[in-house]
Fold these 3 entries.
Entry 1:
Amino acid sequence: MRVVRRRCVASSFSAESAERIIVALDGMAPEQALEFAAAVEGLRWVKVGLELFVQAGPQVVAQLRDQGLRVFLDLKFHDIPATMAGACRRAAALGAELITVHACAGSEALQAAQAAAVEGAQSSGQPLPTLLAVTVLTSWEQQRLQRELAISQDIAERVSALAQLSATAGIGGCVCSPLEVAALRAQHPEPFALVTPGIRPKGAAVGDQARVMGPAEAMAAGASKLVIGRPITKAENPSAAFAACFSGFSC
């Protein structure tokens, strides 16, 4: 496939601002994802999730990196410690710079995953990744969490407890909904990363997300990076939609 190099960042927004938004390539075939990522002006980060990774395989990470992009590998590893360690070691060796694990795997698994990710990156000459522990998925709402999983904590308490567990285990950040960002940032200052899906610019459809917020509000609350998919990927002009997400916040 012809490699398309990144174009210069448009003057309407800064490169630093572009670093704060991760575009989710969900629902795309491999060729479509690569072409889309190459076409969005100023794009720096992309998210490779389960659907794309299962279809395209590990090589899609290398292909995106060859286009000058940084990759958030969002596979949400959750298993016994040895298996999580092996998965994170290989993910880091691919060059993924953000990698998700489930916080509820527990401290032993989180510690093993963190150590293995560092080892995998160092042994392959890749940048050291940041592991992100998933707290409570943004598709969950309170009553269903209690009814289906028998979790008596409210969502804010659950997220806080899992974030603390992750930080204590040496994980570099968490994935949380934007509604929990302010409270978590008060507990966990930078450089602990707070990466937030569930971002919906004004007028965008909520879709399957239950706990959402606009980009400027999420950044003001203390988010490190925002994950945005359909409001950009389904837009008539994705480059313009990408740039519009910076409106109202500065870096």
Entry 2:
Amino acid sequence: MGKAGIARVVGLTALSWVAAAQAQDAGRDFCADRPGKGSPPCVLDAGRFQAELGVADGAWSRGGGVSTDDTAFGAMELRLGLTSTLEGQVSWTAHERIRQKDRTSNEVSMINGVGDLGLALRWSLKNPAGDGVSAALQPFVTAPTGAEGIGGDAWQGGVIVPISLPLNAAWSLALSPELDVRADADGSGRHAGFGGAVGVGRSFGPVALGVELWADRDEDPSGHVTSASFDLTAGWTPASAKDLQLDASAYVGLNSDTPDLEVAVGLAKRF
């Protein structure tokens, strides 16, 4: 091959690199599952990978003569864009500790271990980038890999329907109704669970703030339980790192079946 041929190959290769870089820069806006209890409808571009980490999460309950402290570290979620409208997700918690103390007898019990393994797909039904009116379908299953007293001790699953829509130029509304099939507490069968989150959010430059209400109804035959919380969330995306988010959230329990307070901090990075 002569010098002209080599130059042509080099030139075409350089142009292909430039085109690839421009395509990546023109990709979808960064969108993380964190923070908050709801799920967004946005889907990663095909071939993009995103890691989300719950650095620390603590929940505290005081009631019925018992104090419960539940702390978790290393709650990971890995997301991969499979097609332009479909992504896969894997989630797992590296360590969780539940400490209970009977305030009458001062007796203390402690459980330590890993969490269950979660597997999910998110299929965009409308606007996979999450802009405008956006909706998705998110089926999931949970494998019983967690320690006794921390995990669900059985295969479970369900489906979430994340929805978002702009209210005006500044505010947006998010919904994530959920329907589950859960294991009975006595291990003898399955029952339904349902709930979800509804929230509003607004961005102020690199900072996104949100407020949401979350509720969950567990129809276990041994006793139905309703949990509910009022949630505040904040995320910061540095101007110099558009594929990185740092976040914090606080969840205030609204009844006795919900932790009085839960606080979480974490981050998300797109590759």
Entry 3:
Amino acid sequence: MDPSFMEHTQALIELDDTLTLRRFAGQADLPEFYRVIEESLDHLRPWMPWAAEHSLAAQGEWLAGRAEQWDSGREFSYAITLDGEIVGACGLFRREDTPENAREIGYWLHPAATGRGVATRAARALTEQAFQLPGVDYVEIIHDKANQASGAVPARLGYTEHHRRPATEPLAPNESGEDRVWRLTRAQAQALASR
């Protein structure tokens, strides 16, 4: 991984006085992060396959791996905080089969934080972050076609539906098995910014 990625990635992104994306603090975040997921399980289980495996040990292991993923430039995971409290998570990452010049964005929120533009603002910030990375030509947001709330975010940000494909990961209970792949190119992002 290009070491210059570290120079271009912010560990703290303050979106306003109340909304912040911050790099996870490893095990120090575990109690609060675990509680937020516990409170969100009914909201997450229909769409997030990992929610079925939720446990204190699983979340501890996930948090323990964030520093290595960040340092390698493979995945930049953030706690989404409102008024200093964790209300969800988002990330900018590259999967094994993702081309070098592409990144993907993912996000989820506690149900109390939905409907307030939080996911849209977080995804916008990560989109901007992605295009600061050397060699990134496009960013994708991928979700199951049945998850209309997730699809509203890329549509608001000017992404276009690039294609649909069979799901590549295990299915959660409400998923249809068909992913919508939204894409925003660097040129599209520049055109949107100049409006």
